[in-house]
Amino acid sequence: MPRFGGAPKCHACEKSVYMAEEVKALGKVWHKTCFKCNGCGKRLESGSESEHDDKPYCKNCYGKRFGPKGIGGGATAGCLQTEEGGATISKFKNTNTSSNKFAAGSQEKCYTCEKAVYAAEKLIVLTRYFHKMCVKC
Q1: How many CA within 13 A on the CB side of residue 51?
Q2: Which tens digits make up the pLDDT trace of 32-83?
Q3: CA 81, CA 64: separation in Å to the nearest integer?
Q4: What is the DSSP string of 111-129?
Q5: Bridge partners, residue 83, by sequence
Q6: pTM of the full predicted structure?
């Protein structure tokens, strides 16, 4: 608590914090330069932080350290894993292999050269696929 005429103390460095350099977050007062992620050291903005054991973390570090474990190291919880019999099995495995447009053998073939035609070089003429270079008038 500040004494009469004194400025509040920074939670990180215990030095006086003046109004121009003050950040209020997590119920405490910090210098702008002292309010940074305890994991990676990135400067934080008030409202963009997460707290664990009275220490600030960015959303990414907080997720990695204290979030759910699985694929992605906790940064995302989209694909969790379980271990059954020593093997790691994803709960969200794509079992529909026919929907993969990039699988071998599923590419359209050029009508002229009969090689695979990719989206960036594809030209469709009368329902036939061509490379842009293979179209001749």
Answers
A1: 9
A2: 888 899 889 888 887 778 888 888 898 888 888 887 765 555 444 444 444 4
A3: 15
A4: TTT--EE-GGGEEEETTEE
A5: 88
A6: 0.46
- Alpha-carbon distance of 90 to 79, in angstroms, equals 7
* Residue 126 neighbours by CB under 8 Å, 6+ apart: none
Give the amino acid at 27: G
- CA–CA separation, 107 vs 120, rounded Å? 13
* Residue 78 DSSP symbol: S
Give 81's contacts (C-beta < 8 A, 6+ positions apart): 70, 71, 88, 89, 90, 91
| Distance between first and last Cα of the chain | 84
Note the pLDDT tens digit of each residue in 92-125.
555 555 555 555 556 788 888 989 888 888 888 8
